[in-house]
């Protein structure tokens, strides 16, 4: 079985994916708008995000997101189903600078995109924009869930901040939340399928 990668990205209308969760999540480049997604949470969004857990499988992270998630999830014992899923899942962290992945149970260190491509089965990514860009460029992202928030920020890291290869996707479903967030699901179209 070949690897199949699904990426979930919280983004603004102008494509910013940097620091949706907290003010101090990622201030790189002087980014001052961290935590922009919090005011848009509602039950519809929670249910949509929870659907991803129904297809539990291994996860893949870039180093920075993996380290950030450790602080939020690794020692949590709140009974939240997302916490249970995050801690139980196999977590692949792609990094050239880490020496090991012992800081979070069920974590495995990978050194690069070729190591990800060599894996079998479904993988999911939440965040890790730089890794998603690299996987997309290598033709390895099969599905996107884009959680599009109704605001623009004018600055910050964008999902595709550099040219991405021509890739077609088909909309497979969408939901609009009570706060105007669009959760759009896309599947990659195989070359020559149209």
TrEMBL record:
Domain (Bacterial bifunctional deaminase-reductase C-terminal) ranges: 122-182
Gene Ontology molecular functions: 5-amino-6-(5-phosphoribosylamino)uracil reductase activity
Single GO BP term: riboflavin biosynthetic process
Species per Swiss-Prot/TrEMBL record: Lentzea aerocolonigenes
Pfam families: RibD_C (PF01872)
Protein name per UniProt: Deaminase
